[in-house]
Amino acid sequence: MLQSVQACYLVGGGGGLLVLSCKKSYLSMKEFYNQHGGYQQNLLELGYPGLDCALEEYYETDLKRDSVILLSLPKEPFLKILAQSIGNLLEAGFRVVYKSHNGHLELQAQENAFVETWLDNPNFVYYTKANLELEELQRSITMIEFRSSMLYTYPIITKKPALMLQLQSEDFYLKQNIQDNFFEEKLHIKIFNQKEMVEVVKKLQKNHKFFDFRRSLIWEYCKNEAYCYGSSSQKIAAFIWRYYQSHLPIFHQIYGDGN
After folding, report:
1. Angle formed at CA 69 by CA 63 and CA 71, multiple of 5 degrees
2. What is residue 169's predicted lDDT score, i.e. its pLDDT?
3. CA geometry: angle 230, 232, 237, nearest 5 deg
4. Cα torsion for 209, 213, 215, 216, to the nearest 10°?
5. Which of these, 82, 16, 28, lies nearest to 243 by C-alpha position?
6. Could you give the CA distance from residue 249 to residue 256 in angstroms, rounded to a whole number?
7. How sure is the predictor about 155, in pLDDT bands with cuts at 50, 70 and 90?
8. Cβ atoms of 90 and 163 closer than 8 Å
9. Is 123 left (phi over 0), alpha (psi -120 to 50) or beta?
């Protein structure tokens, strides 16, 4: 029991060490710890290690930006909104890449049935691989969904904003004073209706001034708000090594020197 308690202390006083990707996450968790108890020194400003390889591999090309990536969320009421979005984007002439939700394989049959309506459309791609290929990211205009983690990583990798579909009207959120901690105004554009969605996608594709402005906001976020942009894995590895070295005497005290 003593060993368990001491070991737990070593990884953060009972709460664990928490790696945070950006200033907003840090401030939010700091406030939560202040209100509910927690060790602020356990909040580590070390970034998002899953982005490092993707940032190194991605590059811009002359590929025509003609595609919109929609992320699956195979549950109601999301399916109804996704169906409307796919139909409206195809009607507007866009190539639609519908990425299945690999985290819910038990819903694969439902997903297969959902996309049957558009499988004969040459501009519709039912994408079932776990990860989006580089060319799909390069060819894309934007990514659309509700609040997947990919809505955070996509803008940072591609420097293209992601569109966040909203389930209620803008007035509803204002009247209810609902705060969205996931939304990042420099990375995301909130979409409240289908007409607005198509208009924003067209604007991102055709209006170069608007696109460059949105891209500049994402770069600003990466430079000033994201932690350890492009070097998170390195920084985490260095932290682990320093942590291990600083606690080595305590490890020896608890577990012995291994002899």
Report:
1. 155
2. 59
3. 140
4. 130
5. 16
6. 9
7. very high
8. no
9. alpha
**Amino acid at position 4, single letter:** S
pTM of the entire structure? Answer: 0.86
- Residue with tokens 């020896």, as numbered in its chain: 252
Position 175, amino acid: K
* SS3 per-residue string spanning the chain: CHHHHHHHHHCCCCCCCEECCEHHHHHHHHHHHHHHCCCHHHEECCCCHHHHHHHHHCCCCCCCCCEEEEECCCCCCHHHHHHHHHHHHHHCCCEEEEECCCCCHHHHHHHHHHHHHHCCCCCEEEECCCCCCHHHHHHEEEEEECCCCHHHHHHHHHCCCEEEECCCCHHHHHHHCCCCCCCCCCCEEEECCHHHHHHHHHHHHHCHHHHHHHHHHHHHHHHHCECCCCCHHHHHHHHHHHHHHHHHHHHHHHHCCCC
* Residues 11, 22: Cα–Cα separation, whole Å: 21
pLDDT tens by residue, 164-213? 998 865 665 555 556 677 899 999 999 999 999 999 999 999 999 999 99
Whose structure tokens read 């501009």? 123
Dihedral of CA atoms 84, 90, 96, 98 in degrees, nearest 10, equals 30
Q: Token digits for 29?
A: 């968790």
